[in-house]
Hints:
By secondary structure, this protein is of the alpha+beta class. The chain has helices at 50-60, 78-89, 107-120, 190-205, 212-215, 237-242, 263-274, 288-295, 345-349, 361-377, 389-392; strands at residues 19-22, 28-29, 40-44, 67-72, 93-99, 125-129, 146-152, 155-162, 181-186, 219-221, 224-229, 251-260, 278-286, 303-307, 320-328, 331-339, 353-358, 380-381. The model is unreliable at 1-32 (pLDDT under 50).
Amino acid sequence: MRIRNTARIGKAGAMAASLAVPGLLGGPVIAEPPPDLGTSAVFNEPGGTEVRDQLTRLIDGAHGGSTIYLSTYLFRDKVVAKHLLAAAKNDVTVKVLADSDTKRKHYGIFKDFAAALQKEGGGSWAKLCSEGCVGKGDSPALHSKFALFSQTLRRSKVSFITTANLTDNKTGGVGGTKGWNAGYTDVSSDGLYERLRGYFNDLKDEPNLPDYYNYNAPEPTGNTKTYFHPRKKGGDTVKNVLDGVNCKKGATVRVSNWWIGRKAVAKKLWEMGRSGCSVDIVANQISMSSCEILAKYIAGSPLHIKGFSRGKREKGNHEKNIMIDGYYLGKNRKITFTGSDNITPSSLSENDEITVRIADSAIHDRFVENFEDVKAAADIELPAFSVPKEDCKPLAP
Length: 397
């Protein structure tokens, strides 16, 4: 297994530190502290813990008197719970939101964690949202996965966005450590942190906002931009993003997702493949209707599709990433999208979801490197054919 952690080290130099341990000549031995936290990307292969390790590193580095905000779909990871409780004991305020689906299996992990956290006091708490948080009544799930740190590892206002649920090899399937997942750490944008903290507070208040996308419209924050769902009006967010790619000038588009099931996106990707873009797709599963759209004219076009068979999906692809290398919104650049958003109808119009756009070439290249690993692990590849229905069946849910 290859372990790949940070894309780069932060700009700030490492602080000097010393331990009063006698050296050979009787003087102190100078011990180097861990590298400064930097904006980075981290990925785990099935069974790996690299994404979780980055999260617990951030938790453990939280300064006394600081605050951690965490939103997740399923909270069933004893390791993360242990680290959060330790932070609370060290005068860190811990605030956690999870979806009520957490109750379906292994509920004792969250229940015990929430009770222990409440005993610590200091403003710490953990709660479950029923039928989502911001889209009450219409939203079946809080599905956003992110953590915010007001101060950690000598940095302020750190944002961590991931595709992974808080489940491990025993308590969850492909969604946690058991599948391919991604995590993005941002230390460069106070604006992103503040925007996500405002979003967290909206989730906590559980308002009835079934069109939260337009209530809290996409907004750039430095080299990032955030998009929220549910979205009831104004089309498909992913399709609209792809509309910004100029295939006539050339671009490579890579899509890595748990489930592709929105026909508008499938049609757009097919059109891009026919218009000059190189389109590369790896999914855990693809709906029959979307697969047939994508594959109908795959012969002769630069469009490639791979996926995981039913027997391998529990250790398959749970990422939600799009990488664009080429002309996007009038500029030749490298752009990455990641977050919680599956390409499914519920992720668009029902769930509480978050996607972040990252304009950073180094981050893009790290995501592409991971994409190639996921693609190599996929065991189904659609051939060039004229009648796609039979070939699409192995990819169907």
